[in-house]
What we know:
The protein is of the alpha/beta class.
Amino acid sequence: MVMPHPEIFYIYALKAWEPHEVTPFQGFAPGLIPLAQLLAHPAFLPRDIVQLTMPPDNQLARRRAGMAHWIWSPVNVETLIRKRKPMPAAPFMVVFTGDEAVARAVSKWRKTLTLKPLHVSMVEGVGALLPGEITVERIRQFCKVALRQAKSLHRRLDIDESLAAMDNWTPLKSRPSSIFYHGHNVTVANELTLRSVGEDAPSDPQGHLNASSHESYVSGITESTEAVLKLQEAVADRAAFLVYPRLPDIVLVAPASYRRIEEQLQQNAPEIIKRVLRAMERQRGFTLTVKADEEDMDSIGPIMSSRGAELKLQSLAVAMRSASTLAATIRLAPAVNRTDRVVAQLSTHLRNYDNPPDTKTARVFRAVQQALADAVPGEHLDIIRASKSGIKIISDAAMEWLPVDGLPLGIYTDLSRIPVTPGNILMEQLRPQLPVQVTPENFRNFLLLSMFDENDHLAEIIGKAVATLEDSKGRAIRGTRCTPKTLEEFVSAINAYNGPMLIVDSHGQHINDKVPGGLIIGGESIDIWSLRDHIRVPPIVILSACDTHPHDRNHASVANGFLSCGASAVLATVLPIRGIDAARFVRRLLLRAVEYGGLMNSMGRSVSWTHIVGGALRMQLASDICYGLKAKGLITTEQTEELQLSANMDLNPHRKDWLVRLASRCQEAGGFDQARWQTLFDDILAASDVIRYTHLGNPESIILSEPTVFERFYTAFE
Length: 718
């Protein structure tokens, strides 16, 4: 007999669109806009037919472990009709529509099916439920009917257990809201998360944060964030987290527009439109203020409405992601995006030198960090500092460099980011990501593609570095190295590979905001976006190339290109990197995946790929500190090795105070005081390549785990 899959698929059908037909500021498919108000509906409905048979705390724990995302996806209506009909083994599909032509097409298609999806539409008269009519009970009735329809198509389908599960549903008990409910974009993610666990919303939630003081916005965000963190505390310790590591507990969100989009839209625009666009470009707080006369409203209304619709869509999509993982969401003010000018100054400075002066680099980097610190309220920095399972950035701002207890945020904790431009990539990355399980031993099967010219001094650095790599038992970690000279050879090598990780060893370039970034292959710059339908990318991509996702260039980066081609995690560079430093980091990363991953598995723990990368970056910085002091003649070779070893012990597992402990040991070994240490550390940090990496996509969905870890876990509960 065959058991049906328990998942309920929530599909958002939208009209077809061409790649150039996107919303102006952020680049969403136009058909997504009318669907925005329907995005949150699944959060009040079951994720699958077994969810409501579980105790409430177990439901929350599933979310924290990444095992209970609501499965939702936008789909072009033509693709839906042609390829996505419900199947007997996966019979539960709910289709949402907001456009009349799409709604009528879905209604017509549905009539042709024996196994019918549930149709929910804002359009009346198409034979669909209205959004207000869909309830938990209505979903139960639909799922029972769908099971019986599936059984009629597949006689070997066993539906008895599924029907019995639905007879045992216990809807979440309603309870009063734990916060003052604002119903505003800046708090909607936390409010949806709270409501998804049974909290009520007041009958009149609108308007509480419209045109309020900056402090009121900060207070509302803080209160709602802390309320979600309290939910996490209720399920802080669960055995399941040994197998499925907890997902990031905090999400930092900063909406943004395409770079320089305001300048482009101002061309040939009336003065009042230019004024609005300049106000958007300069906005620092949560409220946009524009001086306009009443007669100007007809002119500025459409552009304000267009941007408002994009922000609402993004806010609700992020809310669905946060609710799925029980993450607390901090909405950052536009001030973080205004740091782009000082970030550009740092980028220009570092691109002007192969080895820039340490002291000047440190001064410019401190200016960037100070600008970021000024843009983040102290209340929110305190919450960020207390993160227990890592941070997810949904932003285009350089938040990895935010200073937290003396370290950039990207080094302080495990961190990854989802870019907010273009909007369609954002939506793809916010959708639920099924866990990808990889054994530590699989990382011996990496693919290294080296694409330098033979006479280039960088050509063999990484190749030689990994050619001699061994684990602590003397076993080789070699992988496969190829040297494609043409685009065709590059594509062929990737498509022939079946392992978990691609390492790209190449020159990268992203000249300006008018062109896409590219990898240099055979002397030509290759736009990775153009390969979307031609390559099958492994889950992990390591870009050991310069400027593969620079903060001061447009959204068409090499890293975003690999995301668009299907990578789950892309470790990219925001600045030029140095060959020898890059080779050392690649060695460290491979060794950590195999050795540390294997060690943790032997202790009965799985490890996320985010933690592998985060730990490698911290260990690399510790190494840069120790060997940097040695290079200055401040400590001996023996002291260097001892300091490195003690730092590694503090970092595996990760102690938050590792830098304080290392600073104390360095001062004792070198005989210098705290002031001298701070100067030395600032210079070393700013010069280190570790600040030049950014981790994109959903690396937390990639789990390093041997099958025995799962076997031991499930055996313990039999």
